[in-house]
């Protein structure tokens, strides 16, 4: 029998034997260390990790290869969520380039003196020289006066106006005059034309008749602190007013409501909806209701298109709404 310290090759190696229950344990039959017990299980461990992460791995592969399907089905209807917008394209920031601050300055006679009032708003460039905004931003009908009874609104008759001009305001404060070529008093929108080169709205003009309650909507406006984007949903497809007895007094089907905060200065700002991941212009901000600051109301784009086609023969204008 060979010595316990001798290998089969005849080479002697000296390892201290370990005592276990009265017998000697040599390298050939000693217990495994913790590391030796762990190493054979490493492969099994990674198998378990791979199995646990398999759903996540499959989700990543699926979202990359089938992105639009994963984000939401394209069905040709307006979306209830912004999930189909591609964040890599930054499309809302692109829209902001076609939105402009405007201001109308009106000089008028009142009680023998000439007074001046201003109204600021937002306009969207429909092409290189044409802007869409709210009518009350470009034609001022009232001014606010301080009286012993407080601040009151007083009318400005057209006959009392000395001058009324609308300007596009640049970032450096310089101004370019814009001519009012169409103003619709009944529905409250106006169209301006300017010699200044504009950046046109980069997406399609939508179809407001296809909107549904719950569709996601974006309002682009100006708190007079810089342009901002606010998101909400279409909350109503018409505007209802009630009489003294609670009866329905009037239903205005040219107006729709959105759950996005609207403030003074937003007037004329565009309202955008999403159809299959693409932004579309579906209206402009026209008024707000004081007790409902969290809501906004806009004029439908179809109403604007119908009124322009009916009431003007301007070929350049009609080309936009063809």
Structure, described:
The protein is globular and about 95 Å long. The protein is 19% helix and 39% strand. The termini are far apart. The chain is α+β, with helices and mostly antiparallel strands and 322 residues long. The chain folds into two domains: 27-64, no CATH class; 91-320, Thrombin, subunit H (Beta Barrel).
Supply database-style keywords.
single chain; 322 residues; alpha+beta; Thrombin, subunit H; six-stranded antiparallel beta barrel; 19% helix
Topology:
Blueprint: E1 18-20, E2 23-25, H1 34-38, H2 42-65, H3 67-71, H4 91-96, E3 99-110, E4 113-125, E5 130-133, H5 135-138, E6 142-147, E7 150-155, E8 161-169, E9 175-184, E10 189-193, E11 204-205, E12 216-222, E13 227-236, E14 239-242, E15 248-252, E16 255-258, E17 270-275, E18 278-287, E19 296-300, H6 301-311, H7 315-320
Parallel strand pairs: 11-18
Antiparallel strand pairs: 1-2, 3-4, 3-8, 4-5, 5-10, 6-7, 8-9, 9-10, 12-13, 12-17, 13-16, 14-15, 16-19, 17-18, 18-19
């Amino acid at each position: 029998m060979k010595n316990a310290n001798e290998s089969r090759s005849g080479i002697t190696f000296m390892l201290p034997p370990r005592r276990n229950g009265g017998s000697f344990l040599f390298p050939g039959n000693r217990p495994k260390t913790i590391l030796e017990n762990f190493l054979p299980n490493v492969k099994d461990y990674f198998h378990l990790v791979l199995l646990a992460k398999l759903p996540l791995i499959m989700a990543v592969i699926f979202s990359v290869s089938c992105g639009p399907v994963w984000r939401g089905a394209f069905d040709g209807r307006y979306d209830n969520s912004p999930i189909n917008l591609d964040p890599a394209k930054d499309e809302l920031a692109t829209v902001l380039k076609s939105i402009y601050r405007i201001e109308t300055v009106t000089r008028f006679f009142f009680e023998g003196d000439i007074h001046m009032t201003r109204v600021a708003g937002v306009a969207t460039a429909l092409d290189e020289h044409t802007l869409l905004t709210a009518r009350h931003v470009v034609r001022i009908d009232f001014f606010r006066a301080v009286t012993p009874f407080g601040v009151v609104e007083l009318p400005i008759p057209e006959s009392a106006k000395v001058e009324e001009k609308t300007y596009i305001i640049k970032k450096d404060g310089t101004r370019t005059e814009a001519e009012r070529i169409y103003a619709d008093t009944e529905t409250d929108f106006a169209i301006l034309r300017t010699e200044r080169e504009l950046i046109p709205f980069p997406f399609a003009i939508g179809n407001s008749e296809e909107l549904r309650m719950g569709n996601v909507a974006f309002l682009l406006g100006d708190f007079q602190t810089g342009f901002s984007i606010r998101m909400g949903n279409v909350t109503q497809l018409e505007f209802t007013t009630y009489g003294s007895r609670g009866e329905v007094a009037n239903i205005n089907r040219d107006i729709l409501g959105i759950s996005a905060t609207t403030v003074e200065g937003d007037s004329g700002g565009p309202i955008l909806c999403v159809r299959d991941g693409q932004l579309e212009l579906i209206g402009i901000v026209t008024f707000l209701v004081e007790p409902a600051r969290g809501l906004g109301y806009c004029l439908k784009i179809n109403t604007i298109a119908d009124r322009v086609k009916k009431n003007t023969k301007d070929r350049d204008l009609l080309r936009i709404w063809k």
